[in-house]
Write a structure and sequence with these properties.
The chain has one domain (about 1-75). The protein has helices spanning about 1-15, 20-50, 60-75. About 80% of the residues lie in helices and about 0% in strands. The chain contains 3 helices and no strands. It is mainly alpha-helical.
């Protein structure tokens, strides 16, 4: 009897749900990780953009691309 009274009081205090604190923590952690995931994705995109072959002009990029292709062809043969 005493145990059930305790749980009833706990449920009354927590708005009728005995595990409300656990569910609140669970939902907050999910939101937290979603936000962190979004930040990581945005940051990685920014980093890739800023590192795109050290922001070289288009003509130089074409030369680099040709050199890479030629080297790859040599390696394959």
């Amino acid at each position: 009897m005493q145990k059930s009274d305790k749980t009833r009081n706990r449920m009354r205090k927590s708005g009728g749900r005995p595990s409300s604190t656990i569910s609140i923590i669970y939902h907050n952690s999910i939101q937290f990780f979603q936000i962190i995931g979004r930040i990581i994705i945005v940051r990685s995109q920014q980093f890739q953009f800023s590192q795109s072959l050290f922001n070289q002009p288009p003509k130089r990029l074409r030369e680099i691309g040709k050199n890479i292709n030629n080297e790859n062809l040599k390696d394959n043969i």
